[in-house]
């Protein structure tokens, strides 16, 4: 029920009536009581969250001026007031922005320096590199900073950025503020008009809602894209003082800020009238202003993010192996699972090598033109056990057999962890099939029910003697078994896409994602794939956006509210989908408008894949 619910209806009782299989249960005693309890706790905080980088600075001990409590994280203390209450108390509050991409870039630069002898200076790279921008404009941005999401990729193909200023706009425009304020489509149209005017050698003057706004909105073609512009618009059009502008800024940063900002309408209308602005124009502009209560970027923020987006694109283009090693080692981060990132790396000619007991480090490493997955990525392995295993190998040489490995690895490395390493191919170098290796693990380590009390879970084997039954022979794993083993043990595929193994069993008439652009707009089509992401933004008026991946890449599917209501169970719950719909092509973007949606059924393999398929990244 929790997985199918979309939390958009009036309450749990209303939601149950809409869910397949739950209709009519609201009158049953237990379900009725559940609905009543849910209504009672509705709106209460779900849990106490700790801001990842929020700090309060005080000249006195905080315990004297604000209630404190211990956080769930060890050695951390949390202020019991939220950010708005701290602001009301005039505390000095600083938010430190922690970006995983900075760690990724740092690691990539270190790896490049290890290979080439010196690190690249990312402050002096060519920031007008046409090859890098060509890939960005084509939407080839999976794994890049801030410009990798489904919506960003669609926007990149429409705006086609060619410099850092354009990238700053790209970072800022796909945010709730500009979207709700109606800035997106006008900006795209005006940018294309400006591009044509430049090509023809004539000046371009973007339209604005009032001449007083020309100076503050000129650089963004007459629309509000940055938080800073909200204050500038209020000062230019309504004559807001610095104090009024500061009060508006504070209102923008608060919860329920739309209501708070709405309280400025009378002041805005009076100020605009004093400057000769018609009330209709003032109301139109103020609607755009209060849209930024939904969140928007300051220009400095967008510029810094745009710079980092370009640097990540440059590193991936010129040093792909080092970039993907850094990307894998700094997960979770960004919009995509490791499964998607793994196949994107392969499309960039980076081979993914599975973990190997005698070749892998704790985390991913560079192996010539390939990425070697680290032991720490294997299920049931901790960083500590992986580190101890690597140190043992460095100290006493490579492991020679399963028996040698069992004798020398740390005592807290359990049988399940060793079996996971064997399943994924980490012991293939011993020259046996994986079934033979698993047989030997069972010989050298007792069953779970016979584990010793010291937590080692294995016999004390001091002499390197062969086991009398260790040479029995078993066949190897089939391709589908290897793929299932990879998903079950490391959570992603180091090689093939799941659909490659059921290609002949797929429904007829499918169009691969990389061939959709060859169809005419409006054509009927069918697509199928692994669900990468499901999004239902508050600003999308009930539309759902589904990202599907097949062997050729990813396709974007748009699900109308009525279609979503009919196929909600499949849209929200199925890891593999088949979708029939109509192709929509506009401004370089390609979308499938869904008309029929079903869970993809292709035999026992996909049924088994349902149990181990990576979770999609879902919002809304």
Structure report:
This protein is an alpha+beta fold. The chain folds into 5 domains: 1-44, no CATH class; 54-95, no CATH class; 104-300, no CATH class; 350-490, no CATH class; 502-619, OB fold (Dihydrolipoamide Acetyltransferase, E2P) (Beta Barrel), CATH 2.40.50. Helix content is 42%, strand content 12%. The chain contains 26 helices and 13 strands. Strand 2 (68-70) and strand 3 (77-79) form a beta hairpin. The longest helix has 20 residues, at 299-318. The chain starts with 11 loop residues before the first helix and ends with a strand.
**Main sheet specs:** 5 strands, mixed, barrel
Low-confidence runs (pLDDT<50, min 5 residues)?
449-459
Q: State mean pLDDT (0 to 100 scale).
A: 88
Determine the number of helices (DSSP H or I, runs of at least 4 residues). Answer: 26
Number of domains: 5
Instruction: Measure the end-to-end span.
Output: 15 Å
Strand content: 5-15%
Principal-axis shape: globular
Helix content: 40-55%
DSSP E strands, number: 13
Rounded to the nearest angstrom, the radius of gyration is: 28 Å
Multimeric status of the protein:
single chain
Strand order of the largest sheet: 8-9-10-12-11
Structural class: alpha+beta
């Amino acid at each position: 029920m929790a997985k199918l619910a979309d939390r958009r209806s009036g309450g749990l009782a209303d939601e149950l009536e809409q869910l397949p299989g739950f209709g009519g249960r609201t009158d049953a005693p237990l379900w009725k009581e559940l609905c009543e309890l849910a209504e009672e706790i509705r709106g209460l905080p779900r849990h106490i969250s700790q801001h990842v980088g929020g700090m309060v600075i005080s000249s006195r001990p905080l315990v004297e001026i604000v209630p404190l409590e211990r956080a769930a994280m060890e050695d951390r203390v949390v202020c019991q007031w939220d950010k708005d209450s701290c602001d009301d108390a005039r505390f000095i509050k600083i938010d430190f922005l922690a970006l995983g991409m900075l760690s990724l870039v740092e690691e990539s630069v270190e790896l490049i320096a290890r290979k080439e002898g010196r690190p690249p200076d990312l402050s002096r790279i060519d920031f007008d590199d046409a090859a890098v921008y060509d890939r960005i404009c084509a939407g080839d941005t999976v794994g890049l900073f801030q410009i990798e999401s489904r919506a960003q990729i669609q926007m990149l193909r429409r705006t086609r950025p060619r410099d850092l200023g354009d990238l700053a706009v790209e970072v800022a425009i796909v945010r709730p503020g500009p979207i709700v304020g109606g800035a997106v489509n006008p900006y795209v149209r005006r940018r294309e008009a400006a591009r044509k005017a430049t090509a023809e050698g004539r000046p371009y003057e973007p339209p604005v809602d009032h001449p007083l706004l020309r100076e503050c909105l000129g650089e963004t073609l007459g629309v509000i894209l940055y938080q800073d512009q909200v204050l500038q618009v209020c000062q230019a059009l309504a004559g807001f003082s610095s104090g009024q502008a500061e009060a508006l800024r504070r209102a923008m940063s608060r919860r329920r800020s739309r209501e708070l900002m709405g309280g400025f309408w009378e002041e805005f209308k009076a100020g605009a009238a004093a400057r000769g602005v018609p009330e209709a124009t003032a109301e139109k502009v103020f609607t755009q202003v209060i849209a930024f209560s939904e969140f928007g970027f300051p220009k400095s923020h967008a510029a810094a993010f745009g710079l980092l987006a370009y640097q990540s694109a440059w590193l991936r283009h010129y040093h792909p192996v080092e970039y993907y090693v850094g990307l894998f080692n700094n997960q979770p981060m960004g919009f995509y699972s490791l499964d998607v990132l793994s196949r994107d790396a392969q499309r960039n000619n980076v081979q993914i090598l599975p973990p190997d007991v005698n070749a892998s480090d704790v985390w991913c490493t560079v192996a010539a033109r390939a990425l070697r997955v680290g032991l720490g990525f294997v299920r049931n392995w901790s960083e500590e056990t992986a580190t101890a295993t690597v140190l043992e190998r460095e100290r006493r040489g490579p492991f020679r057999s399963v028996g040698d490995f069992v004798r020398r690895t740390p005592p807290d490395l359990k049988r399940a962890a060793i079996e996971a390493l064997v399943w994924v191919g980490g012991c293939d170098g011993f020259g046996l099939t994986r079934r033979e290796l698993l047989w030997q693990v069972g010989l050298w380590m007792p069953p779970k029910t016979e584990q010793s009390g010291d937590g080692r879970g294995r016999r004390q084997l001091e002499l390197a003697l062969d086991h009398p039954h260790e040479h029995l022979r078993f066949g190897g794993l089939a391709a589908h078994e290897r793929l299932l083993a990879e998903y079950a043990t490391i959570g992603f595929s180091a090689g093939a896409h799941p659909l490659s193994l059921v290609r002949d069993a797929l429904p007829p008439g499918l169009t691969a994602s990389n061939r959709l652009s060859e169809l005419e707009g409006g054509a009927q089509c069918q697509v199928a794939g692994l669900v990468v992401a499901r999004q239902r933004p508050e600003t999308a008026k009930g539309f759902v956006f589904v990202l599907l991946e097949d062997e050729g890449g990813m396709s974007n599917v748009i699900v109308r509210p009525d279609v979503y209501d009919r196929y909600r169970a499949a849209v929200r719950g199925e890891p593999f989908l088949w979708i029939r719909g109509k192709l929509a092509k506009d401004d370089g973007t390609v979308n499938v408008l869904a008309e029929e949606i079903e869970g993809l059924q292709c035999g026992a393999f996909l049924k088994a894949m349902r149990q181990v398929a990576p979770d999609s990244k879902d919002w809304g």
